[in-house]
Amino acid sequence: MEKKTPLYDTHVDLKATMVPFAGYLMPVQYPQGILFEHRSVREKAGLFDVSHMGELFLSGKDALRNLNALVSNDFTDLAIGKIRYGVLVRKDGTAVDDLLVYRLSEEDYWIVVNASNTDKDFEYFTNHLFGGAVIHNESDEWGQLALQGPHSEKILRKLTDQIPEAYYSFLPEVELNGMITLISRTGYTGEDGFEIYCKAEDTVRLWNLLLKVGEDDGLVPCGLGARDTLRLEAAMPLYGHELNDQTTPLEAGLKMFTKLDKKEFIAQEALSAPVLKRRIGLTLIDRGIAREHCPILFNGEVVGEVSSGTMSPTLGQAIAMGYIRADLFSETEFVIDVRGRLLKAQRTKMPFYKK
Asked: Domain ranges in the chain?
């Protein structure tokens, strides 16, 4: 039985197409369609319900040591009010999940994780914690909205002057029309924008407030379909596609978020070994769309597979991300098998789109 976010009835009232996703019933699109929603975010603004995401609270005198031991990045110099991306890893280097770490105080961290992995992540942290550190799953207490697009700041400033100025920074107690929120300058679309956390019981009120004040600036509700095409254009990995139980952050091209010189890092030895596969971006030359699991060929031999693919609304081209053998990483010409059709594809620098 799928769960429902606090906005489920609101989505139904807006005539959204609801689908099961990550254990929840979520809107994939609204009546005007994915293409309209995608372009609204690129040109104006879009509002996403991301209340299905998980929130874990890690605290204690050894909270930092635990983060540095279990997550790929180094959080030693993460300032209070700042956010850092990382990958939760096993001893063999494979990804448990990718996540964002918010530093609330000297000993308190907020960890935002993928919805489908919340229970798994909580259990993994719990089973591996050491010293003076405790972790709590606060996911049911929070609603989360993503306000994304070039008009996002203008819209938010109609409600408050407390705006996080720097990318990957946050303000923890911002009042929006009587509601206490946490606002971070983060997103999953490749555009400027904010993720706004509120008490679960305030989610519907906050959603309606934002849509009302943003109406004149083109703000529209957006679903999972546009969220996926937007993040794919920005070449952002999605757990279950670019990251999974068989993939390491280095194979996924996340070297800048992987620090191997940490004393207690659980995967230091495993991630010091050469990688066997690499993530690449591809633009299709022949007509067609490559989808997940389509084989990637080089000189007639299968050398990998597509992890995500779509027709890019912004670029007007079919794009894909996928994995190939590491020894072919410098090659530029590949073929993708799309249901028996062999389509030429060109290696493309990621991200495909950059604002």
From this structure: 3-52+140-233, 276-348
